[in-house]
Amino acid sequence: MTGLKKIKTAVFISGRGSNLHNLIKFFKTKKSPILIDLIVSNKKDAIGLKYAKKYKIKKKIINYKDQKNAEKNLLLTLKKRKIKFICLAGFMKILSSSFIKRFKEKIVNIHPSFLPKYKGLNTSVRALSNNEKFSGCTVHYVTSKLDSGKIIMQKKVKIVKNETSISLDKKIIKEEHKLYPAAILKIFN
Ligand code: GRF
Q: What pTM, to 2 d.p., does this model score?
């Protein structure tokens, strides 16, 4: 795919940004259908923002204290930059349904569980305390219902004896880094 045909994409983060970093490395490959043009964070000190500097990608910090204003402002930036696709990657805010409507089926998210099990936070801790045999990760479309949109791809991760939430999280994030690019390829190919 040539640079011109690639889909202009924004990645939304709030923290560490390992999925963001992984998606940046993916978009630099020839086979990537997306081009990451903007990094959005609701936190000005999110660790993942360092990748904006490293890879010379524009960043935008939004202040979610006034969600309506923040999203209005954000929509203007997205429009100006001709962003057509949004990847949420550890973005800890819930987008309003009017924002989501503006990007219908164009916002995806990665979640650290085998949905529909364990929506929300602390997925590994909850899976372990329920003695689950596996957890996993899921890439899904974003709707106004938390972690409930149509599933694009998911991967199971086995829970072994003496598993801790730390060891399980480590195994899951490794799979997330394979799953997110694979799901994007599936969407656009
Ligand atoms: C990942 O586990 C993702 O599934 C969840 O938040 C975490 C973000 O990690 N939504 P990172 O910031 O991409 O390292």
A: 0.97
